[in-house]
Amino acid sequence: METETIIEVTQAHTDALGHLNHVRAVRYLELARDEWLTACGLYASASGTRYASVVVNVNYNYKRECFLGEQLRITSQPQSMGNKSYTIYHQIIKPNGDVAIDGEATSVIMDMKQRAILAVPPCMAEHLPHRV
Questions:
Q1: How far apart are CA 106 and CA 69, in angstroms?
Q2: What is the pLDDT of residues 31-71, one digit of tens each?
Q3: All domains of the chain, ordered by start, with CATH?
Q4: Tell me, what's the pLDDT at 132?
């Protein structure tokens, strides 16, 4: 399952060079990942707020600049999963179709009340191929 998130670059999201700040770009990817988790149903139950996705590794490649006013399309798609971690691949795509940023984030699901890492829940596992 792939999700798509649309975000416009605003003045507050640019840096002194006039392009999308790298910290804000990572935040965009975080928002897109959260939309993927929501689409999977992770937060669908009343106890959904009990669980959180926690990033344990990030690897993003910056390929093109993104500028003020651009409508960016962010795609998020499942890469793989282990017993307790999962990896999502992201792309930030410019209006002309160029990939500005791509890469992946590996995360775990944490029970926030018990402060414990859980196995990947079934609502997510059905979309994630097992790592080999």
A1: 30
A2: 999 999 999 888 766 555 678 899 999 999 999 999 999 99
A3: 3-125 (3.10.129.10)
A4: 66
